[in-house]
Amino acid sequence: MSTIAIVGATGFTGIELVKLLENHPKINQIDLFSFSNAGKKIKDFSNDIETEDILKDFATINYNDYSLVFFACPNGTVMNAYSDFKNSKTKVIDLAADYRLDNEEVWEKYYGLKHKSPEILSEIVYGLTELNRNKIKDAKIVANPGCYPTAAIISLFPLLKEKLINENSIIIDAKSGFSGAGRNKIEAGLDKKINNNFIPYNFYKHRHKPEISQELNKASGNDVKITFSPHILPIYRGILETIYVDLNDDMLHVEIINLYNEFYKTDSFVKVSESEFSEIKNVINTNNVNLSFHVGQDKKLTIVAVIDNLLKGAAGQAVQNMNVMMGFEETTSLIK
What we know:
The chain is an alpha/beta fold. The chain has helices at residues 12-21, 77-85, 104-111, 129-137, 147-161, 183-193, 208-220, 253-263, 311-326, and strands spanning 2-7, 27-34, 56-57, 68-71, 91-94, 125-126, 141-143, 170-177, 199-200, 226-233, 239-246, 270-272, 289-295, 300-307.
């Protein structure tokens, strides 16, 4: 049995972690930490939580008390805490972006901060379990992927690895429920702004663009060119990405389906549709990635990928990584 800590437990992602872990059969204690809400009950922040646990002050954390610590916090939190936990026994999963990028210069350009531990950037394991499972098993720190990158990378990795598509003409048209913006922006009025609305934002400068490019480059071995266009949907949770690619040669729909079924044959959470369009409603409250493939004329292929941004795009992926890091069954406490 293991003792786990969640830092930043009152945010949307932290709440989802609590919900997933409170009945995990391999965990005997979960301590919840906050920077500004110590002394309050976690259930005060969600009607879906049963536990009466009291939030602890993050300033009091002793990392050696825990087998693993989740950080569901703003960017910069984990790199600032690194010197405090690096020599402890604990493993760490960072749900923010401090260690997602390998390149210090690129990270600082997109995140607008000076990185505090750039010397370890290239050593941190990128936590997309379907691609890095063996590395995650032995990792001290895992960088949980971003929500948009999770859907995009799983969608495109097999085609790029097998050199089946043009690497210079990939379009990722992405739409997310507004929970992806976080509690602060919603409480500041985003929930009203998004009502009966559909908002494009951060074209050509979104922080997830270099993350997607980095991992797709690893699949291809080349510098992949993508156009990434994010939008906010007037729904609370879920992501749908419509991805447009050009096939190098004509392929039958069944050949594409067979490629993905083979590539992800050991991955419980990747679901390949053989006929229907992927829809957000089919993945809500699950850890699944649903993919559908639509072949057009002139070697055109459109991929539709859907995930729950708070689960497979955040907390569910983090628990999946924890299960692998701790030697538990990978699907424990996760809905598929």
